[in-house]
Amino acid sequence: MIILNMDLRPLKTKRKEFLKTLPALLEAALSLGGCAQANCYSDLMERGRYIFYLSWEMPHQLYNYLESDSFKALMGMKNFMSSKPRITVQYADEKIAVEGAFDNVLQKLKKQKYSDPVQLKGYPFLK
Q1: Domain 2-122, CATH among 3.40.50.300, 3.30.70.100, 3.90.1150.10, 3.20.20.140
Q2: Are residues 30 and 60 in contact, defined by beta-carbon separation less than 8 angstroms?
Q3: Which of 1, 29, 35, 102 is spaced 20 to 30 Å from 72 by Cα?
Q4: What global pTM score does this model have?
Q5: Per mean pLDDT, which range of 39-43, 49-53, 63-67, 112-116 is the poorest?
């Protein structure tokens, strides 16, 4: 299981539009093969902070999502954010593999693509 979290903080003026768009983005992720869970959580302690949570069964399914129109739409919402979105990718119950600025992590993840999920064990390219 691969867990992808995104810390999103939309501008106050764009929050309503952001929230209207989220259900379609979550449904699109779920419609792709291998997405086990897609949610967005609102931080009760920090108003205007949202955590976009997706879990994938296999690494190659996450890669398919990163290439999807749904993810491109989400990336297009960067201009709606008050701060640079942060992304975290975690493999199963192991320690966090990658964390950082949205664009940097995506570049690291997209650099390597394997067709055989066994090769991804331990994510050597994320070290």
Answers
A1: 3.30.70.100
A2: no
A3: 1
A4: 0.70
A5: 112-116
